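User: Teach me something about this protein's shape.
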Amino acid sequence: MTAQPARSARRGRDARRAAREQTAAVSQPYIVRKVPLTELCSNEAIEIIEANAETVLQEIGIEFRDDDEVLGLWRAAGADIDGVRVRFPKGMLRQLIATAPSEYVQHARNPARNVVIGGNNTVFAPVYGPPFVRSGDGGRRYGTIEGFRNFVKLAYMAPAIHHSGGTVCEPVDLPVNKRHYDMIYSHMKYSDKPFMGSVTHPDRAADTVSMCEILFSKDFVADNTVCTSLINVNSPMVYDATMLGALKTYARANQAVIITPFIMAGAMGPVTPIGTVTQALAEAMAGVALTQIIRPGAPVVFGLFSSSLSMQSGAPTFGTPEPTLVLSAAAQLARRLKLPFRSGGSLCAAKIPDSQAAYESAQSLWPAALCGVNFVLHGAGWLEGGLVSSYEKFVMDIDQLGMMEVLLKGYDTSEDGQAMDAIREVGPGNHFLGCAHTQAHFETAFYRSTVADNNSFEQWEQEGSRDTVERANDIVKKMLASYALPPLDAAKDEELLAFITEKKASFPDSNH
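Assistant: First, the predicted structure itself:
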């Protein structure tokens, strides 16, 4: 006698959940922060870090390897050159950095998706770089271009993801020297959100710019930023030829780069937070200043990737307190330099999307949200210390990003937000469930998770006693099944494909 009502209730819940899941392309283009910043580092400590970073730059220096042009640029700017080691007079880099914009617009092919990077804004982007993917159905395997496209589609459909990202997984089924064409095209074709370019060779960065000129037009790209790309420092204190080549290509084209010291404390930097931040500041300032020598006013982001290290195994660890201290201080330093700031998102060392993944990701995401990170890379999908892009973890993470979006929007102090009419209507001793204010807001008053099960134990048991990962697996399948291709001008699509075909045919495949 009770089976029919139970089935009806379940259908109703399923319908409501489906409606929430398919709010796909309806989202804010980025978050405008309306809550105060969390700053963990005192002004005295910040000044110590800045003074020590200047000492590093002046006395120890930074190496710029295998790039005579860059060494020549530094020599002309007044730096001291000793082989590939460059030392900088005190205050020189700060003076150069002053021409960098404090924020910039990255244009998407759909103008409604444009993002403003810097200032009080936060942009969430997906995982970047893993060679493997994982799903509940297929387990752990190498990434492919099909998997790459799937993650682009999921990022496009996720309201709390504002940016399509870059290497959402490495498509190892394609030649190393040609896969960037398919990767960039996938971002252009399967999403209309902003994206990142290739940095694995200067020519691949140039190909990215050329493809952007087809998509947006040469004139538009000449005057606007349409690409933000990742330049990792080879910490400690080294820039290699590959990163320098990509940096120069993008800066000259007025396309943004994220200068990112990549520091696992204890291996690639000191074990102490102050020491790590000192090194990161010196490394970042050198790269940011170089972009301004190449093209004053070019958009650039102060980036940071920092993790602690297991002193027992040598493996990176995440969700620990020390990287939070590093991130907060670096965010403060970036603001003092009037630069946008990038750092990590939902980071973890867990091998599967389990409780370790959840705890570590939460401990990594909260500081990024509260301490004022402008561009949050690795916002969703990261597993196994960055070796794996996980479908289920992606869905679990975007649910958390949605919560951060609500949090960062802060308080509604409007007349409606004050709810005085509701308090007057209900009065002492009654409840608010049936009042007009509650009825007007019951669908949107609170964040509603797409992943969590908030039903009774009996309902959960009746529906199969499924855990979060199983529910996330279902959501992934539903999202991909309901994906709709965003419109792309047919002539531009044809021109992009012709460009890719011609370029691929012009040189042989290679795996390096």
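Now, about its shape. Residues 96-409 form a domain with the TIM Barrel fold (CATH 3.20.20.480). The radius of gyration is 24 Å. If you'd like, I can walk through any region in more detail.
User: That's plenty for now, thanks!
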